[in-house]
Amino acid sequence: MWKESRDPQQILASVRPLLQSFYSRPTELVAAEMIGKLLVLGNLIGRVVETEAYLGMKDRASHASPGVPARNAVMFGDPGYTYVYFIYGMYHCINAVAREGREAGAILIRALEPLSGLDLMKQRRPTAKRWHDLASGPGKLTRAMGIGPQHHGLKLFEGPLLLMEPVGAPVPRIAVSPRIGIRHCADWPLRYFEVDNPCVSRHLLNQRSHHYLGRPWSPEDVSLCDHE
User: Fold this and answer.
1) Which of 130, 95, 128, 132 is nearest to 113 (CA)?
2) What dihedral do alpha carbons 93, 188, 178, 79 form, nearest 10°?
3) What is the spatial distance between Cα 113 and Cα 145, in angstroms, rounded to a whole number?
4) Which CATH superfamily is 8-172 part of?
5) Where along the chain do its domains lie?
6) 15-17 vs 38-41, strand pairing mode
7) What is this structure's pTM?
8) Closest alpha carbon to 75 in 85, 90, 86
9) 206 dihedral zone (left: phi>0; alpha: psi -120 to 50; beta)
10) pLDDT tens profile 134-162
């Protein structure tokens, strides 16, 4: 059964903007706390249900690892900005720059639970057979939301693309696992997702995850997660 789209004005009546200070903290902590927040672009609204943290130059899976080419310069800049890049010659991915005491850091938004604008999302993602497949991956969600290179380098705390917090919403149950689809640092537990949400990317790691510890990650935590 296709989910009915909610009125965006009703949703936005009970949200508050996230300040830039939200992003000026350890990348891992922000990645976990982004779960349950709302990504808003006009009347299109999706609830963040999956993220991945990418750290500084020592993280070989991060675009920051080579240093500061033009492509990734925003990762080394002020927190709270968007980092949008094109991958595999097929689709865009959107990240939020977040860091504290580190030379770079960004968070890949991996999946959204669509709340408003589902008809337009379906037009943009005609191959999606179920509503929870509309934005259940980083390339899917950018297509569904209409996010592209024009949204690179924007302030998520000012718009037009916003990350907002629903007021009074239940605290989501968050799990952590290694990141998906990478070769380097594949055992680092930096993927966060809401437990049992159907919009999360389907992966075996969902069954071998651990509940989020509620604090920034450290290398000692690798032993807590199964390796990919």
Assistant:
1) 132
2) -30
3) 11
4) Methylpurine-DNA glycosylase (MPG) (3.10.300.10)
5) 8-172
6) unpaired
7) 0.91
8) 85
9) alpha
10) 999 999 999 999 999 999 999 999 989 99
